[in-house]
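User: Can you model how NG6 sits in this protein?
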Amino acid sequence: MIKKQLIAASLALSTALSGCSQSEDVTVPTVTHEENKKPNVVIFYIDDLGWGDLGSYGATGVETPAIDRIADNGIRFTDGHSSAATCTPSRYSLLTGEHGFRSQAKILKGDAPALIQPGKATLASMLKKAGYTTGVVGKWHLGLGDGNVDWNADIKPGPLEIGFDYSFLLPATGDRVPTVYVENHNVVNLDQADPIQVNYRGKVGDRPTGYENPELLRFWADPQHNETIVNGVSRIGHMAGGESALWKDEDFAQVFTDKAIEFIRANKDNPFFLFKSYHDIHVPRLPHPQFEGKSTMGVRGDAIVQMDWMTGRVIDEIENLGLAENTLIIFTSDNGPVLFDGYRDSAIELLGEHKPAGPFSGGKYSRLEAGTRVPTIAYWPGTIKPLVSDALVSQMDIYASLAKLVGVEVPEGEAVDSLDQLAVWLGESTEGRTDLLEESLGNVALRHHNYKFIPGNDSKPRFIKAKKIRGGYQSDDQLYDLDQDIGEHNNIAAENPELVEQFRTRIAEITQGSY
Ligand code: NG6
Ligand code: CA
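Assistant: Here's the modeled complex, given as structure tokens:
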């Protein structure tokens, strides 16, 4: 408010002065209307957080006061979606405004090359056009390097080559090597005398592995997650060297939050975009001991508490710096929830009555709603009024909507799946999208208003059974009316052949063309 009054006062002053004859040396502080519409943008991107995992979305067994505060005072969307039921394609879509399947985006290994190549426009490069300073802190999982990455040299291309001014990364996932931080182009704290080697095909170096030394493990891991042991946890992939650079999972909350706060402080005087991407609540779940027992659900719940603490610290910083009324915060998740995802950490056993997916069926990897329907909150005090919105919204639309907000024109062929839904994201309208494709492991389903159509095919990922998630992978078509049947239990495809054909055609139109 104070800032707005100051801007209004300086505008009045400049208008008054512009009527006078001014000598050359009188400098008048001018703040244009456009500048006023360039709020800082902070996206909190949580990993594997389910629709039902926040207090404001009905969680039991865990409390999330910091996030509930922005949910209660901002827009709490009930029908917000990531583009996919897994991480890499969702992140790809958030940053490019395009479906992951258009670029064959799949869950990446830890040594995969950069999926978004230099030259491709991103949310970061678009905001840079509007004068923003851009940073990404946290999980990346969009690949780094050119296909033969040397972790001991300059690691590029990466975020800095696609529009970010600063990056501090967990390169892939917590369960994949290399288990080191990468700041801008380099591994943090690397001793060149102890170079890093990463191999996803076979063992390198002499660090113990989960398959050779299971007695060293803090918790049992499945055969995919039982390779090099770091910090008592076996990971996907093998890694040698880099001892001085190894992360400690329990420090993530502190390290990433501090880096985010440093970025905000350094850029507080100009518009900034911070993509604050979390490891929590992905596996391995190793929250700091200060969060132990803070939920009734074991480490998965404690990781949610940690994630809420991290979020609260950043929000507090924004407020303490006096930036709250000039900062748009978007809080959401990359895909739906999963309990067992490779490590036996008692997430299933300690769940109690808590429903990670809320009233929806499925979860991470699933074709059903909970694959992509995730907590989605927009908060901008003074501009966004408190609202619960049932509009169908997609993270892909953040690109075109923010472009509209900051006055950047999106050229033809850029962010092709991103629709300008600014009015919906600001709560001025509750008319969201009509159609939205939901991607899951390369398959697509269609949301059309309250209908959900899942075209039948024979793809059935074998691992989904082990995850104990209803996958929705069926050979026959499925059609659900979510108004009547929110849990997708009553398949009405057989009784509605015209709708099925109409939706099949619509999917083809979108996948082969655009919305
Ligand atoms: C999968 C891993 C899973 C998790 C996921 C990535 C299986 C069998 N294994 O390959 O444990 O690491 O990749 O998660 O599913 S994500 O949230 O980054 O997409
Ligand atoms: Ca994820």
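A couple of observations from the model: The CA atoms of residues 271 and 406 lie 10 Å apart. The first strand starts at residue 40 and ends at 46.
User: Helpful, thanks.
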